[in-house]
Amino acid sequence: MWKMRIPAMLLILALLAGIAGAQTQALPTPPQAKPADGSGSSDDQSIQVFKSRVDEVNLFFTVTDKHGRFVKDLQQDQFQVLDNTKPPLKVLGFESQTNLPLRVGLLIDASNSIRDKFHFEQQAAIEFLNQIIRPKSDKAFVLAFDEVPDLQQDFTNDVGKLTKGVLGIRPGGGTAMWDAVFYACRDKLMKDQADGPVRRAIILVSDGDDNQSRALRQEAIDMAQKAGVIIYTISTNLSNIKDSGDKNLKMLADATGGQPFYPFKIEDLANAFTEIQGELRSQYFIAYKPDNFMANGEYRPIQVLAKNKKLRVRAKKGYFAAKQ
C-alpha cells in the first residue's frame, strides 16, 4: 500500500510546484532603469534588502490653516497621533520646522504627450533644484521616463550635474509612470543609506496617464509607503478639466502625505515648484514606538489630528510593518 501512496504524493507535490512557478512568472516585474552615463555597474541595479528597527516610526507631516498657509510653531501636545487606531507607546522625538537632510528624486515625464510643454518644464525644474539643494546636506537624482525609467543623473549634491541631467532629457515614446515611481522608490530612495533621519521625497512632473507600465498603480503606491517617500505631483494637463491622469496623481500624493498641484497655465509650473520647496522646509517630524506592534508585514493606518479643529494636518496614510 505504501508503494502506491508515495509516488502519488510526489506527483501531487510536483504539480503544485509547477502551478506555483507559473503564478510567479505571471507577476509583473518593473524594468530596471537605464543608468546615467558612467554611473555604477550591473551590481548597482540589483535588488538589496536593508533592515532597520521596524518598531520605530518616523513620520513627517504638514499643518496649514484654513487659507492654506503653513503653521510652524506648534508643540507636540497640540497633536494626537493614532497608529492602527491607538496612541503611540512612546514618543521618541518631536521637531517643528525640521531642518533634516533631503533625498529628492525628480521624476520627469519624457513621453510624447508632454512634448509641447517640455522646455518650460526643464527650466522650472532646474530653478527648483538650484533653490532646494544644500550642497552640505542634501542630494537629488534626475529620472526621466517614457516606456522605461532613464536615470539621467544619479544621487549628487552637485547642482551643475543635476542641471545637465535635466537638460539631457529628450521627449518621445509612451508612458510608464508606475514603473518609474516603483523604481525610484525601491532602487534609489530605499537603497540610499544615511547616518541619521532624512526626508525622502519625489517630485513627479507628468500628465498622470500611463500606458506602458508593468507595475500596477497600487504596487507603486505600496512601494512608496514602504520606502517612506513623500510624493508631490505636478500635472502637465493645462485643460483646466481634471481627467483620469490627474486622479492618478492625486492618489499618489494623498497616499504618501504629499500634495498634488494643477497649474492653470504653463507659467504656473514654477509656482508649484516654489510651493513644494516651502513645504519641505516647513514640516513637523515625530518619531515614536507604536503600541501593540507586530512585525508581520501588515499595513498599519496612521492618523495625525490637530487639537485645534481649524487646522489641517497632512501626513501619509500608513505604513507596512516590515518583517524582521
Q: How would you briefly describe this protein structure?
A:
The chain is of the alpha/beta class. Helix content is 30%, strand content 25%. It has a single domain (1-324), classed as von Willebrand factor, type A domain (Rossmann fold, 3-Layer(aba) Sandwich), CATH 3.40.50.
Can you describe what's shown?
This protein is of the alpha/beta class and 324 residues long. Helices cover 30% and strands 25% of the residues. The strands form 3 sheets. A 6-stranded mixed sheet has the order 6-5-4-7-8-9, with helices on both faces. The protein has a 4-stranded antiparallel sheet with strand order 3-10-1-12. Strands 2-11-13 form a 3-stranded antiparallel sheet. The N and C termini lie far apart (44 Å). The model is unreliable at 1-28 and 38-52 (pLDDT under 50).
